[in-house]
Amino acid sequence: MAKQEGSTDGFSIDPEQLLSVLDDASALVDSGGRVLRLNPRMARLLSSEEGARLLPFVQPDGTPRLSEVAPLLEPARSAALGIAKVLEGAKDRLEMELGTEGSSLLAIPCTLRGARGALVRVRLRSAEEEHRLRCAEVVQAMQLGLHILRLEDPEDDTSLRYVYGNPAAEAITRTPISVYMGKLLDEAAASPRENGLPERLMQVIREKRTLDFEYTWEDARHNKPLTYAMKAFPLGGQHVGVIFENITPRKEMEESLRSTSQFLDNILDNIPLMVFIKDARTLRYLHLNSLAEQAVGLPESEWLGRTDDEIFPKDLADRLIANDRKVLAAREIGDFPDEQILQEDKATRRLVHTRKVPIFGEDGQPQFIIGLSEDITERRAVEEAQRRELVLLETQERLMELVRQLSTPLLPLQQGVLVAPLVGQMDEARGAQFMEALLAGVQQHQAEMVLIDITGVPAIDATVAEQLLRATRAAGLLGTTCALVGLSPEVARTMVELGVDFSGLVTYADLRAGMAAALRRRRLATSGARQPGPKPSR
Q1: How far apart are CA 270 and CA 259, in angstroms?
Q2: How far is CA 241 from CA 101, 132, 236, in A?
Q3: Which residue of 16, 74, 190, 211 is 20 to 30 Å from 82, comparing CA positions?
Q4: pTM to 2 decimals?
Q5: Within 10 A of 159 (CB to CB), how many other CB atoms are there?
Q6: Looking only at Cα atoms, what is the longest distance across the chain?
Q7: Which helix (H) or strand (E) is 294 found in, with range?
Q8: pLDDT tens digit string along 166-215?
Q9: Hey, what domains does the chain have and what are their CATH numbers?
Q10: Cross-strand partners of 341
Q11: DSSP 276
């Protein structure tokens, strides 16, 4: 290229030579706005949608030329105005951005074919450059820390040097990047080597594979260990990248949850009830306490993740699942006093009293079922034995009462006359019972006379004889006459020997004589009642 003498139009150009050395999209525009020459990159740009949007050129007849200003939109409008001013000489050069970062247009005057023209160069960011820029923006903006280190000596892990750190790395470590940037890893701190970090980074570089690990070290500033989750990955040129985040709060939370879970497990294991937790949607077991394991004889591992129909026989499983469904449908605590569970031998069934509690999530839907079961097998057995014993005692009492009634019967002969036949051995208890029955019968039948038949009594002692006398005297107080019939010679002799005073008691040889006397007495009483009284004197 050579400067044209006496010209103020910039420089004269060999078009072919100029365009061949320019890497950007370039074109030579004459004073009339026609594009005389353009390189391949400009040709591709003009035929693309991006070129049509950004550049002020049109191709009405296939030949590119500067467009009229009126129909253009920014930034093409400003470019057209600027290039026109350069061609007119009103402006020495035009430099402007084309609306996107890194894209620009340059127009400078030149001499073409002895007249003023312009060289137009357009620089657009390439896809590769755009990708690199976006990646850099992501790395700068991401919340994960990133360090990049370079291994300067492939055989020496002490030559690992920091070459990059993003803002998140500075925030996470609370250490300015300038403190360690450009320094060797061992110069930045002693703890990385003590915790084996250089060896791991060397492993990543040599084996060219990603490595995930946790890294813990004592931070003197926080006076507690800090834990980072790290992902180390190989980069080109003996570089290694390390993405990391501080997971100390998460670890502390996990430890707290683990401690809380252990605490709750200890509570559940010491509750004197069987406790189980099920998933409300699948009804699969999620947890059992030790008492539930012992009751069934199966370890928790054989329950977890399984449903009742995978553990128990169908009839038993169907009832348990139906009760679960009932609780979920009612959305309230269910009380089931007679549930059954099966022991390890698959034959022994235990009776349990179970309360099932539905637990709901924030969305109001049931999430869990908590069951509290009490083994009442032995208690029910005791209650059943007590019930049977009570029934037996009641039956015995009724039988004894029947026996007592049969042993001391009171039979009405006719109106006002009763017969009390006594059979078998008489003792003090039976004597007292006879007295009660006698007085009750006298009152019930309004008896005037009672024949006490002791024909079937083989022997009477003094106590029984005295009870018989007391009974007859008590009946006499009620207006009833008692007579003793059927006295055997043995009984009579015994009573005389015992000195029993029967002087106030009427006796008859047998029941027939007693009945005849009672009938006579009854007739006399009746006839006496019918006789008219004495006539009154005149």
Answers
A1: 17
A2: 28, 16, 10
A3: 16
A4: 0.42
A5: 17
A6: 202
A7: helix 290-296
A8: 999 999 888 898 888 999 998 887 778 888 899 999 999 999 999 999 98
A9: 15-125 (3.30.450.20), 130-250 (3.30.450.20), 271-379 (3.30.450.20), 408-526 (3.30.750.24)
A10: 350
A11: E
